[in-house]
Amino acid sequence: MAVINNIKAVTEALDVAMDRDKNVIVFGEDVGLEGGVFRATQGLQQKYGIERSFNAPISEAMFAGVGLGMAMNGMKPVVELQFQGLGLPALQNVIANISRMRNRSRGKWTAPMVIRMPMGGGIRALEHHSEALEAIFAHIPGIKTVMPSTPYDTKGLLLAAIESPDPVIVLEPTKLYRAFKQEVPDGYYTVPIGEGYKIQEGNDLTIVTYGAQTVDCMKAVEMIKSTHPTASIELIDLRSIQPWDKKMVIESVKKTGRLLVVSEAVRSFGVPAEIIATVNENCFDSLKAPLARCTGYDVVIPYDRGEGFHQVNPQKVVEAIKKVLDYKF
Amino acid sequence: MKYIGKFDPQKDEVVRVMDKDGKIINPKLAPSISDEELIKAYSIMNLSRRQDDYQNKMQRQGRLLSFLSSTGQEACEVAYTMVIDPKNDFFVSGYRNNAAWLTMGQTVRNIMLYWAGNEAGAKAPEGVNSLPPNIIIGSQYSQATGIAFAEKYQGKKGVAVTTTGDGGMSEGETYEAMNFAKLHELPVVFVCENNKWAISTPTVEQTKSLNIAVKAIATGMPSIKVDGNDFLASYAVAKEAVEFARSGNGPVLIEFDTYRLGAHSSSDAPDVYRPKGEFEDRVPYEPLIRLKAYMIAKGIWSEEKQTALNEEQDKHIAAEFAWVEQNKNYPIEDIFNYQYAELTEDLKDQLAEAKEFFAKYPETKDGGHH
Ligand SMILES: Cc1ncc(C[n+]2csc(CCOP(=O)(O)OP(=O)(O)O)c2C)c(N)n1
Q1: Is A140 among the domain residues?
Q2: Does residue B1 form part of some domain?
Q3: What is the DSSP letter of B317?
Q4: Does residue B2 fall inside a structural domain?
Q5: What pLDDT shows up at residue A123?
Q6: β partners of residue B161
């Protein structure tokens, strides 16, 4: 067991996967010698050679398309996009080709590839570096989308993504890359795609979140004790966005009768809306308050000076919790 | 035509007027430019360099965001923006264009405000057609092409100039834009500032083509390679290219052969990837040294003038930064107001909700940063 942060967990997962299977390769901008802008692939070129870990010219559409070709022909490419907002040229291939290959070739060709990308705000970055676009990926049939928040999950989910027979988008919250460390098992293990993680059990309210907001929610759950000392909150880290752990969330809301979904993405047409709709369909008889969400606003992610206005923060979550808990019919 | 069509990119020919010591080696290729204009160009190069240095210091103190410096690339940036009219032509920039922005008439204040994380800095002053920094690499080439299309379609006389790096030339969109521009014979000048690096990836890992200029050949448009650290050569070619495009001959691609003397951005450490000695080898070719030596030899510049200019510019830079520090924050309305021509009903509700929250918990404005 080693105590490592999220970025190191990415490196370890890639190392383990490359060691097990020579068809696993990594590429993207600056991925080779320098190890990418966040150093996620640092050391891999030295260890596995320039054929398996290399710089690619700046052309994200090509990364995705080339990755698809490799995957169709027996390889396991793990493509790194430098930032989610800068990877948009790749989106065409993700949506138009990668997600559809199994379906349109009636299973003859498949796209067992991984595209990893840093995402999310809170790192004082420039324009296009702080987007949270998970809803766009989740909306596309044929790909799977995961967003780990802890080093254990980061390593396990990335290994599961590499093992997956389907294309997987791995979203890595930049804010958490070096935020904290955790004990992580050595060697190979996976965290199954589609399983949520219950951080704590509770009876009065279910909070569902993922990514960097897991940390905000944990803080909020502590803070709410000062005004609502007896409130018993169940906190779920979704980990996988699509498929997501419907069963865990539905069971939880049936027990608590209340739901708050927290995500830093802009509000409208987002992942929280999907979760709320599903819970509404399945738990209507158990509900004790309107289903709620705490999110960013429907604006372009502001540059640093205004980013704090837009970001979810623990106090915003606390206010949202109070509204749900104090609701009276 | 003195340059375009006369220098063959397929033979890797390069337009050069002065050597590294500022001595004219190709008098026939020298442009006609007044002493006044030379001094003006040099002053902007000097200002940009000093602003870069100052911003680097402020970034290290956490008072500015990560930014991208033009250090080493000032000659070509000043050259290709000096030859257009800021009011009627367009500059469609990338993110590493400090010297070009200044030449267009963007203020030190606005540029610093932008790097302090306030969108207000991205708004160009009245009469300055210089677009906000374009972070998504490659897409400025299409935007410039569209602007040029509109100029031609509407019978206006403007030219669009756009720029990217050697790395940026790997984005398919740059080729797509050049292809369209040539098909429609549009008045656009495509610039590549080949500074040899794209973050940690050297040019030789971007392309096997002989140089960047040859990338235009497949589109049918002319292209030319220039010593981008030679102000006179850069100015001469840029001027001819803009006139060429303005006269209805269609687009041109100029590759400026230059070198990134700084880090990729203020959060990057080039010593990790840059071969030992490369930087040191390039310093003697840097553009300010060369132009200054030329001007001193010509009798229009002196060390005294340099000292006075440095003092004046440093004072200006420090004063502008002081203003920025006082004025960098903005009210919550600013993140909502520019979303649509009019706030939608839904956004009005969201703004009200946000205002109520931050009135109650103003200190959480920075809560986004753990
Ligand atoms: C579409 C896109 N992909 C990736 C990036 C991230 N990125 C920022 S700068 C850079 C390197 C660009 O190198 P080059 O085009 O040579 O220009 P330079 O920075 O050297 O001026 C990269 C890959 C980006 N901004 N946009």
Answers
A1: yes
A2: no
A3: H
A4: no
A5: 92
A6: B91, B189
Res. B367: pLDDT tops 60: no
Whether B250 shows a pLDDT value over 50: the answer reads yes
* Domain identity same for A131 and A275: no
Burial of B341 (0-12, 13-18, 19+ CB in 10 A): exposed
As for ligand 1, residues whose beta carbon falls within 6 Å of it are: A 29, 58, 60, 82, 86, 89; B 96, 135-137, 164-168, 195, 197-199, 260, 264
The residue range of the domain holding B341 is 332-364
What count of residues does chain A have? 329
A300 and A213 in a single domain? The answer is yes
CATH code of the domain containing A107: 3.40.50.970
Give the total number of structural domains in chain B: 2
Query: What is the DSSP-derived secondary structure letter of residue A232?
Result: -
| pLDDT of amino acid A329 | 85
At residue A168 the predicted structure's pLDDT band, cuts being 50, 70 and 90, is: very high
Q: Do B207 and A62 touch (CB under 8 A)?
A: no
Q: What is the pTM for the complete model shown?
A: 0.96
Q: Within this chain, do residues A134 and A3 fall inside the same structural domain, yes or no?
A: yes
A301 falls within a domain:
yes
Query: How many residues are there in chain B?
Result: 370
Cβ atoms of A80 and A116 closer than 8 Å:
yes
In this predicted structure, the answer to whether residue B70 has a pLDDT above a threshold of 50 is yes
Does residue A65 fall inside a structural domain? yes
What one-character DSSP code corresponds to residue B12? T
B244 in Cβ contact with B84 (< 8 Å): no
Using the mean position of ligand 1's atoms as its centre, give its distance from the Cα of residue B173 in Å: 14
B368 neighbourhood in chain A, CB within 8 Å: 121-122, 307-308, 310-313
B350 and B318 assigned to the same domain: no
The three-state secondary structure class of A248 is helix
- pLDDT at position B369 is 42
Q: Contact B191/B80 with Cβ under 8 angstroms?
A: yes
Cα separation, B135 vs B133, in Å, equals 6
Q: Using the beta-carbon criterion (under 8 Å), do A268 and B346 form an inter-chain contact? A: yes
| Whether residues B244 and B338 fall in one domain | no
At A228, the amino acid letter reads: H
A169 CA to centre of own chain: 8
* Confidence grade of residue B266 (pLDDT, cut at 50, 70, 90): confident
- Beta-sheet strands, E only, within chain A: 2-4, 24-28, 53-55, 76-80, 114-119, 144-146, 168-173, 182-184, 197-200, 205-209, 233-237, 240-242, 259-262, 292-294
The tens digit of pLDDT for each residue in A113-141 reads 999 999 999 999 999 999 999 999 999 99
- Looking at the fold, whether A178 and A199 belong to one and the same domain comes out as no
Please state, in angstroms and rounded to a whole number, the distance separating the CA atoms of residues A247 and A240. 13
Q: Which two tokens stand for residue B118?
A: 């306030």
Residue B15, both tokens: 């337009």
Q: Each residue of B125-181: pLDDT tens digit? A: 999 999 999 999 999 999 999 999 999 999 999 999 999 999 999 999 999 999 999
With a CB-CB cutoff of 8 Å, which residues 93-132 of chain B face chain A? 95, 114, 116-119
Given a contact cutoff of 8 angstroms between Cβ atoms, the answer to whether B144 and B184 are in contact is: no
Residues B151 and B282 in one domain: yes
ipTM of the complex: 0.94
Query: Are residues B247 and B356 part of one domain?
Result: no
Instruction: Report the alpha-carbon distance of residue A297 to residue A14 in Å, rounded.
Output: 35
